[in-house]
């Protein structure tokens, strides 16, 4: 019962991580203009994302421009696009697989099949968390390096936006969920190896009959 509850908790974490991954991938605020020095502009907020660049005005208007050219983008943005999409796909596969393998569901067949499904789903969650953690870390590193570079004017400096923090949190949820699913299946298999099922040996009727026949011969 405790293992089933733990798996359900991990499944909820994976759902939060999946939706957070999609939200972080689509949000345009991976980096925002930094309010430093003489660049304190309260009327305009400029944001840059993986797929579009947006400008928010204090009047409430919002304008965005899509990034159509892929080759003209920096390498870290191209890598972030690819890895975030892979993270979303892997987390979706993990949710489908663990739905079949969890103990609280009636899908997936026998106990061994459900255990293998849970382990496979946990691996998908771990890979999705790694794929989500790499681009956010790389993107944050580029922002910090540009911010500390003295040759870059203050008007061109940016800070990490909300999408980066959402990506970090989502990757953490997916990693925790994957570890829980994999460890629960590993403990189960380890217990089966340490305590194998007892085999009961019953004397065969054929041996009894042969034994009786031999005793009659000696009489």
TrEMBL record:
Membrane association type: Multi-pass membrane protein
UniProt keyword annotation of Transmembrane present: yes
Places the protein is found: Cell junction, Tight junction; Cell membrane
GO cellular-component term (any): plasma membrane
Keyword Transmembrane helix: yes
Residue intervals passing through the bilayer: 84-105, 117-139, 163-186
Any coiled-coil regions, as ranges: none
GO MF annotation, one: structural molecule activity
InterPro entries assigned to the protein according to its UniProt record, in alphabetical order: Claudin (IPR006187), Claudin_CS (IPR017974), PMP22/EMP/MP20/Claudin (IPR004031)
Pfam families assigned to the protein according to its UniProt record, in alphabetical order: PMP22_Claudin
Gene3D superfamilies, A to Z: 1.20.140.150
Signal sequence, renumbered to the chain: 1-24
Keyword field: Cell junction, Cell membrane, Membrane, Signal, Tight junction, Transmembrane, Transmembrane helix
Family note: Belongs to the claudin family.
Stated role: Claudins function as major constituents of the tight junction complexes that regulate the permeability of epithelia.
PANTHER family to which the protein is assigned, alphabetical: CLAUDIN (PTHR12002)
Name of the protein in its database record: Claudin
Biological source species: Podilymbus podiceps
Gene: Cldn20
């Amino acid at each position: 019962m405790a293992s089933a509850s733990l798996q359900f908790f991990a499944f909820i974490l994976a759902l939060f991580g999946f939706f957070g991954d999609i939200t972080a991938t689509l949000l345009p605020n991976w980096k925002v203009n930094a309010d430093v020095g003489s660049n304190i502009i309260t009327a305009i907020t400029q944001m840059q994302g993986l797929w579009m660049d947006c400008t928010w005005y204090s009047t409430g208007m919002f304008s965005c421009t899509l990034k159509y050219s892929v080759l003209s983008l920096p390498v870290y943005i191209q890598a972030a696009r690819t890895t975030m999409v892979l993270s979303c796909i892997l987390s979706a596969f993990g949710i489908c697989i663990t739905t079949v393998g969890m103990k609280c569901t009636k899908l997936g067949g026998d106990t061994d099949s459900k255990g293998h499904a849970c382990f496979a789903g946990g691996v998908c969650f771990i890979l999705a968390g790694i794929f989500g953690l790499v681009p956010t870390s790389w993107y944050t590193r580029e922002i910090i390096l540009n911010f500390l570079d003295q040759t870059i004017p203050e008007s061109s400096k940016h800070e990490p936006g909300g999408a980066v923090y959402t990506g970090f949190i989502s990757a953490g949820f997916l990693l925790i969920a994957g570890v829980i699913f994999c460890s629960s299946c590993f403990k189960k298999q380890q217990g089966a190896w340490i305590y194998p099922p007892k085999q009961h040996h019953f004397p065969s009727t054929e041996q009894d009959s042969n034994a009786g026949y031999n005793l009659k011969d000696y009489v």
